[in-house]
Amino acid sequence: MVAMAARDLLGSSPVKPFWLRGFAAVSASMSKRLVPNPPDLVSWVVREGGFVHKGLRIADGEASGLCLMASSDIEAGSDLISLPKHIPLSFPSSGSGQKWDASLFRIAQKVPEELWAMRLGLKLLHERAKVGSFWWPYISNLPETFNIPIFFSGEGIKDLQYAPLIHQVNKRCRFLLDFEKQVKSILKDVGPEEHPFGGQEVNASSLGWAMSAVSSRAFRLHGEELTDGVHEDMPMLLPLIDMCNHSFHPNARIIQEKGSNEHDFLIKVVAETQMEQDAPVLLNYGCLSNDLFLLDYGFVLPKNPYDFVELKYDGGLLDAASLAAGIFSANISSPSPWQQQILTELKLEGTGADHKFWLQVRLGGPEVVDGRLLAALRVLLADNAEDVKQINQTALQSFSSDPPLGVSIEISALRTVLGLCAISLQHFPTMIAEDEKALKNGEKIFPAMESALRFRMRKKTLIIDTMRDITRRLNSLSEQKVCTLII
Known about the structure:
By secondary structure, the chain is of the alpha+beta class. Helices cover about 40% and strands about 10% of the residues. The strands form 5 sheets. A 4-stranded antiparallel beta sheet has the order 1-4-10-9, with helices on one face. It has a 3-stranded antiparallel beta sheet with strand order 5-7-6, with helices on one face. The protein has a two-stranded antiparallel sheet with strand order 2-3.
């Protein structure tokens, strides 16, 4: 039963992976530019009215590509980069008053909101194909390839060993393959003069390159001021600024401020702390999981406090986890009506348009254990409905507070979570030691395989760390229980 639950833990087995080839196939040289000798980006920004601190330089970070570094000590509070309004590359909104390319607009309307990067990617492809594009100095400096999962081989995608991410990769690849057909259908009768990509063929790989360039580099900032005075939240490509690397402890930040004209604005990077010579310029890309960092940016953080393992909430799985932990309760797989009511309030039972999105719970991350999962187990292991209904949902979902339903129920709930963790580890076909051995053999693995290894190692380590945190909590609760019995 436990073995069956392990297969179902992160969803059903993924369908055969899709992947894209050709235009942006992953190569070992991640810092290669689109053209051999692109224009100097710093000179272009300055020539166009921007500002670049004299103590900055562009360095080759090898696997991570080009990055910004301090060529001398820079004091905190210093302006590092300033871009006037016309330098950032964005896709104009319908209310911005900017001139639209009719065919490009029709194509962009086919892009779902969740894949906003593709919409700006269309603008990027449009400018890349345009002779004499204003943004060519920027575009020519973009990477030729991106080491992100949509460009992994089928085996490379399987090597991730994590169904939620594999699902997202396959979803994006399917979108790109379908979107290619939609683009070609819209453009089949468009003449050369009106063709938004200069008559060049657009396929899934080129669309994937454009979407990857945007997802890995764009920032969501205030865009044009609309007619009602509200600034639209708009993704933008920020030349030079997008060479700053990520850190949860950044030494710089992005700010927007009004220019000399009330309709203009400046996008600036300001030093938050003093930077020593050869220090990289670091921005915080956001409190993201490793799933999103790999999916959008192509890297994995070894110590990411916001990473988690996603599980499918399922009564049968909880039953298997409780049995593995030596906990026996018929209510776990067959809740009573009052328990089902509370599970519905927790959005773990019931029906609704977004019901399928309710059924995901997490292990790890800032919470250690997903509050809804912990609350569900506490409720399912409780016998007295009145005792449970007196507890508010905040206390019911808290991992750090005193046991809301008593020490005995808390111990049983946490032991069940340990069972879930054990099943999670069983889901991975390789052990950490095997992954470490493969990683040490670095000269024989491709960048995609290295990324997959680091990703799945981090997921397994996270589960183990979660088990340690829960075990410490259990030890503390066991001591409380012994003390209570003695008294």
